[in-house]
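Good morning C.,

I know you're traveling, so I'll keep this short. The sequence:
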Amino acid sequence: MALAVVRDLRLHSRLDTVDELAAFEPDLLAEFVLARSSAGVTDATIRADVSIVAEVRQWFGQPLWQMQPHDVDRFFGRHHRAQAAGTKVRKAAAIGVSVEFLELRHKPAIHAATGWVVESPLDEVNRPRGGQAARLRIPPSPAEIEELFAGWRADMDGARKYAPVARNYTGARLSSLIGPRISELACCAWAICAGNWAA
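The tokens, ready to paste straight into the viewer:
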């Protein structure tokens, strides 16, 4: 067995030119798309995430792994100051998941290639907060549900047309018992409003 000089192979992966960096970023983005797809994320969501990442990249003018918390402060505090809270939250989520991907999968490679250590620029201080819709919704208690339907049942006696009111009450009561998904309930409500559901 002979001795040999040990060389650090990472030195040969150093990216110094603009062209090398320009070729490196799309490879990482393509791998990000494949990773999100393998996680079962829908194509529409992936497209939205990629468009947000591209927007942030164009605004920042440098690779996303170089973003610092003060860059995110400028992005949301100045560039997106007038946008709706939900839009900011969606963009922050896309930035967060893309940087998390880089951090989990390519932190050593990016450091070896560029000298940058990947860390998420989003933290508890600058992360955009969601509106009321993003908060946890607590379902009503059984007593509150019973009070609602008891009042509705009593109100049916004074209705001008009994059949449509009874149909709507039956549909709503059935929905409360079987617990359909929101999309199924929306289709059911549309059918009721259109008069296509037989009483």
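Safe travels,
E.
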